[in-house]
Specification:
Elements (H helix, E strand, L loop, with lengths): L1 H19 L12 E6 L8 E2 L6 E2 L1 H13 L3 E6 L5 H6 L5 E2 L7 H4 L2 E3 L4 E3 L1 E6 L15 E5 L3 H7 L5 E5 L2 H9 L5 E5 H9 L6 E4 L6 E3 L2 E3 L3 H16 L2 H10 L6
Parallel strand pairs: 1-4, 1-5, 9-10, 9-11
Antiparallel strand pairs: 2-3, 5-14, 6-14, 7-13, 8-11, 8-12
Helix pairs in contact: 2-8, 2-9
The structure holds arginine.
The site of arginine (ARG) has 13 residues, from loops.
C-alpha cells in the first residue's frame, strides 16, 4: 500500500514537472495564438475588402509573417478604435498592436515599440477647389478634421486658432472635405495618397510639404519585453530574407530610397 502511494506521488510529481514546460502563457512557450489589435480602416495598411470580413493590408501581411516566424500557429486580428489599442495592450486583451502606429515618446512611456518598420509622415488634404490652403502656414484659424488619437490630431492641435473635429476613422474625416464641412484633413501621407488613388481625387487633393517624418512600430505591452524582443528578431529575419521587401512591393510598388 505504502509503495503504491509512493509511486502515485512520484507520478504526480513528474506530471507536474512535465506540464510546467508547456502552457506557460506569454513567456514565449505557448505559441498557439497571437492576438493582434488594429484599427482596420487605414488602407493600405489595414482594411476590409468590399463584401469581406477579412482584414488585409501591409500591416496584416507583415504581422502574419512575423507570427509565423515566431512559431505561432494562429494570428487573430481584433479590430477596435485607434485610441483603444494601447489600453487593450495594457489590459492584456491583445498581445501586439499593429496599426500604422507612429513611434512617439509619449506612447513609448506606455508600450514597448518594435524597431521601425515603415517610414511615414503627415500630409494636408483639402478640397480640390480649395485655392486658399496651399501649405501648413495657411491652416491658421481653419477648420481641420482628424482621426482621433493620431499624430495628425496632435499636429492639428499645434496650429494657431484651428477648429478641430475628431473622427473615428480617416475616411470619416475625409468625408468632411467632400461635404466642404472642413477646410482640411491632416493624416498619414501613404493613407491619404491611397485614398486619393481609390477615388478621393474626384474631390480632394494633397497640398504642401509633408509635415513630419514618422516611423511606424509594432507595440507590445510593457509587461512583455520577451515578446517585444521576439517581434524584433522576426522583423530582422524577414528583412534579411527578402520577405519584408516582397510585402513592401506588393502594397507600395517600390522600395523606399535608403
Ligand atoms: N500614424 C498615425 C498615428 O500613429 C495614425 C495611425 C492611425 N492608424 C489606424 N490604423 N487608424 O497616430
Amino acid at each position: 500500500m505504502k509503495k503504491t502511494l509512493q509511486t502515485l506521488c512520484l507520478c504526480l510529481f513528474m506530471l507536474a514537472l512535465l506540464t510546467a514546460g508547456c502552457g506557460g502563457g506569454k513567456d514565449g512557450k505557448d505559441k498557439k495564438e497571437l492576438v493582434v489589435g488594429t484599427e482596420p480602416a487605414f488602407a493600405p495598411f489595414e482594411f476590409q475588402k468590399e463584401n469581406s470580413k477579412e482584414y488585409v493590408g501591409f500591416d496584416m501581411d507583415l504581422i502574419a509573417a512575423i507570427a509565423k516566424r515566431m512559431g505561432y500557429e494562429k494570428c487573430t486580428i481584433r479590430g477596435m478604435g485607434f485610441d483603444a489599442l494601447i489600453p487593450a495592450l495594457e489590459a492584456k486583451n491583445i498581445d501586439v498592436a499593429i496599426a500604422g502606429m507612429t513611434i512617439t515618446e509619449e506612447r513609448a512611456k506606455k508600450v514597448i515599440f518594435s524597431k521601425p518598420y515603415y517610414k511615414s509622415g503627415l500630409a494636408i488634404v483639402v478640397h480640390k477647389d480649395n485655392n486658399t490652403v496651399k501649405e501648413a502656414a495657411d491652416l491658421k484659424g481653419k477648420k481641420i478634421a482628424v482621426q482621433i488619437g493620431t499624430t495628425g490630431a496632435m499636429e492639428a492641435e499645434k496650429i494657431e486658432g484651428a477648429k478641430i473635429t475628431s473622427f473615428n476613422t480617416n475616411g470619416e474625416a475625409c468625408l468632411e472635405i467632400k461635404n466642404k464641412a472642413v477646410d482640411a484633413v491632416i493624416g498619414d501621407l501613404p493613407v491619404e495618397a491611397y485614398f486619393l488613388e481609390q477615388g478621393g481625387k474626384e474631390y480632394a487633393k494633397i497640398v504642401g510639404k509633408t509635415l513630419t517624418s514618422e516611423d511606424y512600430g509594432i507595440a507590445v505591452a510593457k509587461s512583455n519585453p520577451a515578446l517585444a524582443k521576439e517581434v524584433d528578431k522576426a522583423l530582422d529575419e524577414l528583412k534579411k530574407n527578402g520577405e519584408y521587401d516582397k510585402l513592401y512591393r506588393k502594397w507600395f510598388g517600390e522600395m523606399p530610397k535608403q
